[in-house]
Amino acid sequence: MLNDSFTKILKNSPLGCTYNRIIMDDNGKPIDYIFLESNPAFDQMLGKEPGSVQGKKVSEVAPEVFADSFDWVSFFGVAALTGQNVESEAYSDALRRWFHLSVSSPEQGHFVVVSFDITKAKTTEQELEKSREESRQYIENAPDGIFVADSRQKYVDVNAAACRMLGYTAEELTSMYITDLIPPEDNPGHKKTYKEILQKGKASRTTRLRKKDGTIITASLEVVRLPDSKVLAFSKDITEQQRLESEKNKFFTAFKSTAQPILITDPDGTINAVNDAFIAMYGYDRDELIGKNPRMLNPGRDVYENLGVFPFEYAAKFRDLWVAVQNPAVGTWKGELINRKKNGSLVWIDMVVNAVYDNDGYLKNIIGCPVDTTSTHEKAHKDRVQMYQTIADMAEMRDDDTGNHMKRVGLFAKIMAKKLGFPQKYCEDIEVFAPLHDLGKVGILDSILRAPRKLSFDEFNVIKTHTILGHNIVKGKPEFEMAAAITLCHHEKFDGTGYPNGLGGKHIPRSAQITAVCDVYDALRSKRPYKDPWSHEKTVTEILNGSGTHFDPDVVQGFAAVQERFNSVYQELMDVH
Known about the structure:
The chain is of the alpha+beta class. Helix content is 44%, strand content 20%. The protein is rod-shaped.
């Protein structure tokens, strides 16, 4: 038994205290123990009422502890049987608590246990250790190189990324100093950075590092000072990044300074960048273009149609463009477009569009390179007009009494077509092709064509063949489609009594109907060997009277609205006799 004073102290101790006797089996092995005395703190640890434990076996009070991974009975038996003081930390699975145990033996077969609950401290320690391990794992698995150096600038720890970045093992790096990895020419920068770390506790810089194989890489460094005079650096190999940045700068310089206009959009067509040449070509400020869609440059379907592009061609252009750039197997589109500048003027362009894809095949950017072909278009148009005028002149040379007849007919036809609301391209074409209406006369004998008298019935039938002869010259050529219609049908009449095919009404091509009015107006106004010239007023009356019989009423109505302009043109280009 413990003496009274000691017992009194133990009873009032916040520590759990018990005086116990070991119980052994026939072979002298500890199998249980009896609580001879216990203080309230210990009873409370077991979740028992004070005094309820004393005199009872542990197998009676807390039999569940025999299932614990810690062998309580054997541990206590060491002290009880040997008299040796023992100490340990133990976890009770049954109680789900950690205890610190101090065990001594005042006499053979007996032992005293002083215990206290360390669950909170142990849990904190385990959590701290877990946190340390997690931190270590984060560092070890971090994608960036992490270096720790002591106050001598010797590496004491590195992670796997640092080893991969430089080609060394961890053992090799931790035997090296910072300066072993820095090229001599970068040492001044290193010293400056290290001084900044000591003064401010952190620093950043871009430096060069020598790998194990001798190659030099460029690395970014973020360095902080640790409380134990060590420094920790996060490092990333930016060699490739710098190379790409350099290439990007070269590209940007070329992009900005090239004379070729360039436009760059995102996958949805929003403009990201334009170069100076593009700005100069279209007249917009950069801020007026960035964030917009290139369709702001599109003058619209009506303008295209007015310039001779059919609606289905217009739709096909832009459909084909988008199909091409969205297909990595194609990725390029070339075609002719019409754009409108800021000042409202139109510009013809040959456009090359290239799509840029990422490594996964996703569309990243669209690059457009327009080439201004307006002057080429204008020259081609002039050359085309001159060529057709030359053809018209061939016919005029055969029938030279007509003088400026063909030039006037072309201008009359253009005026009429505009009044009737035809597109600009149509108006330009009819100005060129209407003068070819008598092209077939090159096949008529001079004895008939130049006869200074009224022709006989048979001779007039020969003259009528000029429609077919002219048609045979130009038919089957796409660019002469209008000319073919005019040459064949300009003598057809609205009531079906014309020649060569007796067409009537709306079956007569509109270009031929317009030319017919213009041809008759000019013929009546002009002097011929067989007639005197008519006045403007008499000629207008004749044409108006022919509405619905000789001429299409809609065309006659258009003529009536512009007949004064016809008179002005005739006066300006009147033949001199």
